[in-house]
Amino acid sequence: MAYDDQNIFARILRGELPAIKVYEDDQVLAFMDIMPQAEGHTLVIPKTPAISLLDLPAEAAAYTIQVTQKIARAIEKALGVDGIILMQLSGVPAGQTVPHVHFHLIPTNVHHLGKHAAQMGDQEKIKAQAEKIKAALES
Ligand code: AMP
């Protein structure tokens, strides 16, 4: 399958769609999930156009996981949570809904998870969580 450069995350990367960003550098973007499965649900994406982890070049994968670890620490510090689920769905059969590789950071217990990507979150609440995570990254 060819990479679709009109997918939602590609459009966010180009600035064509809004996102509540918590971190960005020249290789990676981290932003809040619009339909959070728990408070502080954050997505980390490489800027490399890849559909899934399986077609992401190893160096980009390595760097993205390093940033994911950094964001996880900031979420823990900012929101006072213990325990974060790292989820990565590769392929539609696995349940992937956006065809640009991404790592979910979901601060919850897996047994508390409801339906995946099913309910729009309170955007103001999400923005407030993003501000806390950004502050934790800077401290
Ligand atoms: P997946 O099903 O693993 O591909 O996850 C895609 C995730 O992207 C879901 O958790 C959605 O809630 C999230 N999502 C979809 N559109 C947006 C958007 N515009 N901004 C932020 N998150 C989004």
TrEMBL record:
A motif (Histidine triad motif) lies at residues 100-104. This is Hit-like protein. Gene3D superfamilies: HIT-like. GO terms for molecular function: catalytic activity. The lineage of its organism: Bacteria, Pseudomonadati, Pseudomonadota, Gammaproteobacteria, Moraxellales. Residues 8-115 form the HIT domain. One of its GO terms (biological process) is nucleotide metabolic process. It holds the Pfam family HIT. The active site is at H102.
